[in-house]
Fold each of these.
Amino acid sequence: DTGVSQNPRHKITKRGQNVTFRCDPISEHNRLYWYRQTLGQGPEFLTYFQNEAQLEKSRLLSDRFSAERPKGSFSTLEIQRTEQGDSAMYLCASSLVWDVRNGYGYTFGSGTRLTVV
Amino acid sequence: GDSVTQMEGPVTLSEEAFLTINCTYTATGYPSLFWYVQYPGEGLQLLLKATKADDKGSNKGFEATYRKETTSFHLEKGSVQVSDSAVYFCALSITGNTPLVFGKGTRLSVIA
């Protein structure tokens, strides 16, 4: 198992363009989380899935953001009409429901760094 | 809401010095507590955890004890190494269905 994989590692885009990131979780993990991390801050929760169902969305997830997890496997996070304030590291994590309910943490990917110019 | 407060960084120590990074939390229930570490250019890695009061989590020479009476989970290491240089995040989760809530992180630099 190669862990949680995120692509691309880096993305530079012009303001107003749309971008899409992909996360491939650990294969048997049924929970998948998206977080955003800005410079000097801790990760902030955006949304999470259990299998293909999106169970919770943060108010940070504006209408320009959408996430999907078709078939409960990989997930995509799309940002439409990007703004400079969207520049951040976008982190994906996965876990088993059982692990989470028993106090175990998540496995994080290395993140996608987005720069909006 | 639930939150985590960490000591401000950066923290700079000489090799073999004693490390303490303070973490306190505010929670509506009884959280599980975590320390994550982020090395340069990498994702977050779980360092240690504790799920109930008085539990001690430990890993790689790091320790933290869940103190319910002081709502704290301070990270300690007796003798730091240059390879411990990283950003350390304290985090909590109230139940299995609430996402992890992170502190702002504390950057540690260890010099030889």
Note: The mean pLDDT of chain A is 93.
Amino acid sequence: RKEVEQDPGPFNVPEGATVAFNCTYSNSASQSFFWYRQDCRKEPKLLMSVYSSGNEDGRFTAQLNRASQYISLLIRDSKLSDSATYLCVVNTLSQGNLIFGKGTKLSVKP
Amino acid sequence: EAGVAQSPRYKIIEKRQSVAFWCNPISGHATLYWYQQILGQGPKLLIQFQNNGVVDDSQLPKDRFSAERLKGVDSTLKIQPAKLEDSAVYLCASSPNREGTEAFFGQGTRLTVV
């Protein structure tokens, strides 16, 4: 089982749609969780951290379920500029490194 | 604030040749990562430094890859000899600490082995 697994994608959605990405992780000792965004041929950039209580940043909502080892990202009212690859990232404090999922590609169409 | 600097941006070499990549992290960042990203995949961690010490190099192919961060600041990653399957983007990232706060990435070096 891979350490971090994501929906295979790609997701092709119209502008204004709501889209959800899912991610599971295998190491129950994982402590920190993130969603990164990567535009085509660019470097990954932090989109948002994920907290146990859930957190929201504008149109983006992240959720964490430690019992199920599951992370989600919800994007409401999709914009053309949201088109990118979304990477689920997990940190295990004992290892202190960031493990990336394969990423899910999102294309938002007019 | 200056970001993570990497060079070169692009490199084309023949198989069995050697190549080196350079990274200068954000000033004051103790943690430095090297990742390999093959087209269509997520970044794969090759090696992690804390200051000038190696924290994790379990996925570094040590028969051909080496990395150093001698003074705890900038770092080099070397491949010798290169194979076709080493074609990828090599990303350097830095973070203030090991506790999983935000990692900042450089623009990467795109390596093509022919």
Note: The first strand of chain B starts at residue 5 and ends at 7.
